Amino acid sequence: MKYLLLVSHGEFSKGLKNSLSMFAADKIDDVIAVGLKKGESVDQLADRFAKQLAALDKNADFLVLGDMIGGSPLTTICNVLAQHGLLETATILGGMNFPMALNAIMLKDSLNGDNLVETVLNEAKSALKEFKPKIAGDEDDDEEEI
To answer: pLDDT tens across 62-110, in order?
Structure first.
C-alpha cells in the first residue's frame, strides 16, 4: 500500500488532511498526518511516528509531502523511515500546499516515479498566483462576475 504522509510544523498537516477529506473522503484512510507539536522535541516526534509506522504494513510505500525541505519535522520523519528501511522507496516533496496534496492523494496509485513527481509539483506551482476579483462598479464589468 502507498500512503500519503503529510509532515509539518504544528497542526498544518492535520488541518490539511481534514480539508482533503472533503474532496477525497474515499482515500483519506491512506493519509497520515504528522506534525511537530509546540514544545515537543524531535526525539518525541520520532517516537510518536515510529509507533504509527509499526501499525502499518511492513512493505508500505510513502509519498511524503513536507511543509519545508530541511525542516526538523521532515528530516526527523525521513530518519525514522530510514531506520525502518523505507526511505529508499519513498518519494519526498517539499513546499506542501492544498492543490499539491489533493493531486498527490488522487494520483499516488496511478502514477509512479518521475511522472508522479512532475505532475504533483506542476500542480503545486500552477496554483501559486495572484487572485484579482472583479469589484462591482469597475469599468471592465461584464456579466461574468465571481
So the answer is: 999 999 999 999 999 999 999 999 999 999 999 999 999 999 999 999 9
What are residue 65's DSSP bridge partners?
A: 6, 93
Q: Which among 62, 56, 50 is positioned nearest to 5, based on CA atoms?
A: 62
131, three cell numbers: 487572485
C-alpha cell of residue 133: 476579483
pLDDT at position 44 is 98
pLDDT at residue 136, as a whole number: 84
DSSP codes joined into one string, the chain: -EEEEEEEETTHHHHHHHHHHHH-GGGGGGEEEEEE-TT--HHHHHHHHHHHHHTS-TT-EEEEEESSTT-HHHHHHHHHHHHTT-STT-EEEES--HHHHHHHHHHTTT--HHHHHHHHHHHHHHT--------TT-TT--S---
